[in-house]
Amino acid sequence: MRFTFTLDSTNPSVTAKFWAQALGYSSPGAFGVFWPLVPADVSEPPLVIQHVSEPRHGKNRMHLDLHVPELEAEVERLVSLGATRVSEEIREHDRRWVVPGDPEGNELGSRRTARRAGGGALAAPSPEEIRRFYDRYFQTWNDHDREGFIQLWKDFVTDVSAEDPVGAPPRRGFEEVVVGPWDLMNSTVSMHLEELIVCGNEAAMVVRNEVTIGADTVTGHSIETMRYADDGSVLLRNWWEPQGDMLDSYAKGEA
Predict the structure, then answer these.
(1) Which domains does the chain show, CATH number per domain?
(2) Which of 71, 105, 124, 125 is paired with 204 by a 20 to 30 Å CA distance?
(3) Per residue in 209-221, pLDDT tens?
(4) What is the DSSP string of 112-145?
(5) Distance CA 210, CA 75 (A)
């Protein structure tokens, strides 16, 4: 089954121009009271702007959500095309979004997800996005920015699984893979990136870990690999030698 979205407008030429630019669709012009907008990818639904004489009243009963990799940059782009910012940033269900309105005030959603700009299926991040993520990863960890570290993960991936270390019971979800290790280790472990190699949707890094145990500091290295899937999730595999009771317990899945 195929379907077409139809949007009423009292000023269809302006509305059609905005939506064509916002979505990257082409506009062949008016056909009577209709202004069809055609996607480059035939698997995406067309949008038709229909001329009506009555202005919109109240909230839209239906709206489009644009899934983008960089939320604020997308909102700024839409505003430059003629949109207005209806809401400030909203955070809920591990997602962030902003509600802009088109030139006639019709709401649309701009959401930060793992979806590539322009729509399509959820996709793994680019090598450059992976590098930027790990720059922030080590910065927020060593700055002891718990909220920033956790939000960084939730903004970057849809789900996370880990073998940490390899051979330990598998962990899954933000609570087990991100929040739990932070609460257990951040106060006593500092991490320093020594090498990061990114190849397509996979990456590997060597990390120097400085672990404070009582009055002593023990330095050891770990190797972590990351494989990002097309659904926005990531699998982490970590190799390291536990030092002390705390890390021994974590490795055995007891913490």
Answers:
(1) 5-112 (3.10.180.10), 127-251 (3.10.450.50)
(2) 71
(3) 998 888 888 888 9
(4) ESSBPTT--SB-PPPHHHHHHHHHHHHHHHHTT-
(5) 41
